[in-house]
Each structure stands twice: as structure tokens, then as C-alpha cells.
Write a structure and sequence with these properties.
heterodimer, A: 138 residues, alpha+beta, Immunoglobulin-like, 2 domains, three-stranded antiparallel β-sheet, 1 helix, 6 strands, 25% helix, disordered N terminus, B: 281 residues, mainly alpha, 13 helices, 78% helix
């Protein structure tokens, strides 16, 4: 693709030529490693269906609502979509508060964050029930 | 352009040249950024994406435009100062084009924060300003012959490939489909896509390489060009794809294998863009 000039035989041109092969060698190594990684992954992954772990990141009071940030991790080998997360705050006295969160996508072995808004403090005098109620395979 | 301003009172001919150049730049910016101006994910990214990454994108864009202007541009430029002024002009044209189009679409308007409006325009500036710079080579053809004779170095070839990858990658990267495709793929699909990308790329490079007195001839063994151009070009396309995905926040909280698969998916259009850069740019 380079113009075939007269300078081709000069020393700098020879260096440049050698350099092109070095770059090519690095790229070759890069692609081989990439393919090796993918093949290794293909051999080791057995298509475990999505499984979720949920943890509470933090609770913050803003005005008279409590924002509870949660992290959901998909530990399976398959991406889940339309993941519905349900959080129920059960109080010793008074009515329960139930909230829902929906994640468009939760890729395999990846995390997504979301926030529930409660009227009462989920940290005191209450039990928190968090569960994934449904998902769809994209 | 600044050149005319330096001459003192511009003649009517010079003035019409400025108008023509500006018109071309506006047209180029519009044609190249139209798909992105009309993509809703691009509007959302305008207010949701990380401000530092957006700033970095603009910072990266400027030297890219200067180098691109050195290679192709509004004028056959010689001095770096002119290339910088051309690049800034393209950046300005890109901003104006994006601002006008987004206003007419009702995407930006009163009641929105400065943060939102600035972000929505800023993210469109990259494709629009590249379009403005490329306008001459696309819409004006008078200096084509001269360009063909310009000697290509390996570096400038790689640079053009990177711009081609960035441009085509930028076109499709913001869409939801890009990551959705990667979610549907298994590692085996990814291996297939890597091989397909390399095949398509090599086809382009070989086909384009044969045009007019270049080093690649039908006698060149296929692996020679494959190792020196196709493989480095593909590596470049993947790195550019990864950078775009990171910029758009697609790599956050995502597993390594998912990032790699998404990069390979985006690498498909990017590598085609890189290989066809000579045709597009």
C-alpha cells in the first residue's frame, strides 16, 4: 500500500520494513492470544443458567425518603434480561413496603446497580427481603 | 479560512471560495453525523456519560483532526498552523451543525440544563467535525490526482486505519443492539466473528491495495500483506473499539469476557472501516 519509491533500498527504508514486520508480529501474537482466550472460554463455559446474588451497597436518607442502593450480580454463564428485583421491607409494626426494580440486561458474571426508595428506614426495626422474581433470556 | 483573512481585503473570488469551503464543510458534517444526530442513545449519552470521558474524547479529537487535515483537508496545507486552524474550523462547523440539527429536532431546547445541552452537542462534535474535514475529499474532487501521488508511510496508513475504525465504530457503538449482540453470543460465535472480521478486512485491504502503483501486487503472497497490514489493522480496530466502548460507559461493572465479546462485535464494523479507510476518507 506504500508508494514504491526510489528510497526503498536506503537504510531508513530497510528499518521501516523491519519495523512493519515487528508490528505485524506483535499483532499476530495479540490475535493468537485473543483466539486462545476465546477457545479456552468456550471449552470451560458450560452454559449455567443465570444465578443472582444481591447485596445492599448503602442506605442514604434524602429528605423524608430512604434510598437503598443494591448491587445484583449474575454469576451464571448466560445473560439475563428484564431482571425484576423485588424488595419487601417488613416492619414489626405497621404495613409492609414492597418495591420493584427492573434491569434491562444483566450480562454473565457482571454487576448492575439500582436503588429502592422506602418511606421508612430499612436499617432499623425492619427486616429486608430481596429477591429476583423473574428474568428473560435475550 | 484564516488564509483569506490574512490577505487583507478579500477579493470576490476568495470570498466565494470561503463560502464554498464552508458550505462543503457544513454539508460534510451533516452527512457524516446524520445517523448519530438521529439516534436516541446518542442523546442519552449526552447527559448520562462520564464528563471526564467526554472531555477526553474532545481532547483526543483535536490532534486527530489536525493530523487528518495534514493528510486530507480543505486545502493542500503545508504549515502546521494552517492544519491547526483547519482542525479548529472543522470543530466549530461540527458544533454549529450539531447544535442547529438538535435544536430543530427538539432534542435540545429551553428548560434543559446547560449540562444536558452541552453534553448532547459535545458528543456529536466528533463525527460532525470529522465529516467537515473529510468534506473536501468527498465532495470536492479537484485535487484527487495530486493526493494519489502523495507517498504513504506505514504510520500514515495506520493512522488512516484508526480514523476509519473510529468513524465507523462511532456510528454503531451507541446503539443498544451493539451490546445486545454480544449478550447473545457464545465464545464460539466470538471466534467465528474474529475470523470473519479478518477475512473481510483482508479482502478490502487487498482490493484497495491494488489500486494505482502500490507495493501490493497480485504476486505478493497473501500472508505478507496479512501480517503487515491486516493483523495490525485489526488490532488497531479492536483497541479503537475498546476505547469507544469505555468512553460510552459500556465496560463499567462488566466482566472481562463480556467486554472482550462486545469489543469483538464492535470490532467488526470498525475493522471494515479501518480497511476501507482509503475508500471512505
Amino acid at each position: 500500500m506504500r508508494a514504491n519509491g526510489k528510497a526503498k533500498t536506503s537504510a531508513p527504508a530497510r528499518y521501516e520494513k523491519a519495523f512493519e514486520w515487528v508490528v505485524g508480529g506483535v499483532a499476530f501474537f495479540f490475535v493468537v492470544v485473543l483466539l486462545g482466550y476465546l477457545l479456552g472460554l468456550g471449552a470451560s463455559v458450560d452454559g449455567r443458567s443465570p444465578r443472582f446474588s444481591i447485596s445492599v451497597e448503602n442506605v442514604e436518607q434524602t429528605g423524608n425518603v430512604f434510598q437503598m442502593q443494591v448491587v445484583v450480580t449474575n454469576e451464571g454463564d448466560v445473560t439475563a434480561s428484564d431482571v425484576t428485583l423485588r424488595g419487601v421491607l417488613r416492619r414489626d409494626v405497621g404495613a409492609d413496603e414492597a418495591r420493584e426494580l427492573r434491569f434491562d440486561y444483566l450480562p454473565q458474571r457482571s454487576q448492575r446497580r439500582g436503588t429502592f426508595l422506602f418511606e421508612q428506614d430499612p436499617r432499623s426495626g425492619a427486616t429486608m427481603h430481596l429477591s429476583v422474581t423473574s428474568y428473560v433470556e435475550p | 479560512m484564516g488564509i483569506v483573512g490574512l490577505e487583507g481585503a478579500p477579493s470576490a473570488r476568495a470570498r466565494s471560495k470561503v463560502l464554498r469551503d464552508t458550505g462543503r464543510a457544513l454539508g460534510g458534517a451533516l452527512i457524516f453525523s446524520m445517523p448519530m444526530l438521529m439516534t436516541m442513545e446518542m442523546w442519552w449519552l449526552g447527559f448520562s456519560m462520564d464528563r471526564l470521558r467526554l472531555a477526553l474524547l474532545l481532547v483526543v479529537c483535536l490532534p486527530l483532526l489536525v493530523l487528518l487535515s495534514r493528510r486530507i483537508g480543505f486545502e493542500t496545507t503545508r504549515a502546521w498552523r494552517e492544519d491547526v486552524s483547519d482542525a479548529l474550523f472543522a470543530l466549530g462547523v461540527g458544533m454549529v451543525t450539531s447544535a442547529v440539527a438538535l435544536t430543530v429536532f427538539g432534542v435540545i431546547g429551553p428548560g434543559m440544563s446547560f449540562h444536558e445541552i452541552a453534553g448532547k452537542i459535545a458528543i456529536q462534535v466528533v463525527p460532525a467535525s470529522i465529516g467537515a474535514l473529510l468534506a473536501r475529499s468527498q465532495l470536492g474532487s479537484e485535487r484527487r490526482d495530486e493526493e494519489e501521488q502523495q507517498e504513504e508511510t506505514y504510520w500514515s496508513e495506520m493512522f488512516l486505519m484508526a480514523v476509519g475504525a473510529l468513524f465507523l465504530g462511532f456510528n454503531v457503538a451507541p446503539t443498544e443492539e451493539m451490546i445486545l449482540i454480544s449478550y447473545q453470543m457464545t465464545p464460539w460465535h466470538a471466534v467465528g466473528l474474529v475470523l470473519l472480521s479478518l477475512l473481510v478486512m483482508h479482502g478490502f485491504i487487498f482490493a484497495v491495495g491494488f489500486r494505482g502503483g502500490t507495493e501490493l501486487t497480485p504476486q505478493t503472497p497473501w500472508w505478507n500483506a496479512f501480517i503487515r497490514f491486516t493483523l495490525p489493522g485489526y488490532m488497531l480496530a479492536l483497541l479503537v473499539s475498546l476505547y469507544i466502548l469505555w468512553t460510552f460507559g459500556r465496560t463499567d461493572d462488566t466482566s472481562l469476557e463480556q467486554v472482550i465479546t462486545a469489543t469483538i462485535v464492535l470490532g467488526f464494523p470498525s475493522s471494515a472501516g479501518a480497511a476501507a479507510a482509503r475508500l471512505i476518507l
